[in-house]
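Weekly sync, protein design subgroup
Attendees: M.S., D.O., the rotation student, P.L. (late)

Item 1: inverse folding check
M.S. brought a backbone from last month's batch and wanted to see whether the design step gives back something sensible before we order anything. D.O. pointed out we never logged the input encoding, so this time it goes straight into the notes. Structure tokens as presented (331 positions):
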């Protein structure tokens, strides 16, 4: 069996288990020259399953994109599943946010979002897992956060922060059940949008950064009341790059997400699309979280910062507390 056939099998398996693919679905696959074979694998998998499928290539001469191409916006009409299988460019985050909002506003399209998808992800671990077991693990973890108020997060790299997650329920991408109909592929995390005005402490990103990759030197992010007040790193070029990205608008510096990786097949590859799903990792993002339960952040961007082996101690509304994760191990 060749690599394309392997990608096709993984794509179909993921669409069936995660996006509830059925033969009546009308599927649009959005891809580009960089990830064309991965996009074609999704397209072919949907077609061979019996669906009506369309393939759209992003116009390379206009990249990085900041707005949704008019023909793409028109193509979304009448579709039931959209797959974003294109290269994840840091400068295109505003385009991706607008495109996701456009899709989810229909309240009828299930979205498989996979910017930066690679052949390796599709053939190997993260998309070749036992989805039934992963679904069970994800919803058990979500249940353990029921009635949570605060979560204290520490990690060996130096992270030490308290976030408020009261009434900010967790969601997951392992299986689409309720709105918003959004899942990453490969999937395998749970997340929530913490209260945007609460959160003091330090986040030390010693893993990957969204659209940038693995850090060569840890990045320290200092927070007050949920907002970045300073960043430091021995990698001065990285600091300059992150400063630009978190100053796109005022809320780009405001906390937007807490995520926990649960995919046993995900590797630490330097690509956040896969890294953020890996076991023994967590990530905190800044920027838009309007599609999360209770989310109030309307930024044009969303940037994830990953760290290893988190410990999470949760305080509940009834005054009790429990350590759910210790140095990356789910208890």
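Designed sequence read out in the meeting:
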């Amino acid at each position: 069996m060749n690599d394309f056939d392997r990608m096709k099998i993984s794509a179909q398996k993921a669409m069936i288990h995660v996006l509830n693919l059925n033969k009546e679905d009308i599927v649009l696959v959005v891809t580009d020259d960089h990830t064309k074979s991965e996009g074609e694998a999704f397209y072919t998998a949907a077609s061979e399953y019996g669906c009506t499928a369309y393939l759209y290539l992003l116009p390379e001469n206009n990249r990085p994109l900041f707005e949704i191409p008019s023909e793409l916006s028109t193509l979304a009409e009448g579709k039931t599943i959209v797959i974003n299988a294109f290269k994840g460019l840091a400068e295109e985050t505003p385009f991706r946010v607008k495109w996701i909002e456009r899709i989810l506003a229909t309240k009828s399209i299930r979205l498989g979002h996979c910017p930066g998808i690679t052949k390796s992800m599709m053939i190997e671990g993260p998309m070749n897992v036992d989805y039934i077991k992963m679904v069970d693990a994800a919803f058990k973890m979500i249940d353990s956060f029921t009635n949570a108020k605060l979560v204290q997060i520490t990690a060996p790299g130096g992270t030490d922060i308290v976030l408020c997650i009261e009434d900010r329920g967790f969601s997951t991408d392992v299986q689409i059940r309720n709105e918003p109909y959004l899942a990453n592929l490969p999937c395998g995390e749970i997340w929530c949008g913490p209260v945007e005005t609460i959160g003091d402490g330090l986040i030390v990103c010693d893993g990957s950064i969204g659209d940038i990759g693995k850090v060569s030197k840890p990045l320290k992010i200092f927070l007050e009341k949920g907002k970045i007040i300073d960043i430091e790193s021995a990698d001065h070029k990285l600091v300059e790059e992150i400063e630009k990205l978190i100053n796109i608008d005022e809320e780009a510096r405001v906390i937007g997400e807490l995520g926990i990786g649960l995919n046993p097949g995900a590797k630490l590859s330097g690509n956040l699309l896969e890294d953020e799903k890996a076991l023994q990792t967590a990530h905190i993002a800044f920027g838009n979280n309007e599609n999360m339960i209770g989310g109030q952040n309307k930024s044009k961007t969303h940037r994830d910062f990953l760290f290893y082996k988190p410990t999470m101690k949760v305080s509940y509304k009834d005054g009790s507390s429990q350590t759910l994760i210790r140095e990356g191990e789910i208890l």
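Discussion: Residues 3-19 form the longest helix (17 residues). The chain has a mean pLDDT of 94.
Action: P.L. to compare against the previous round before Friday.
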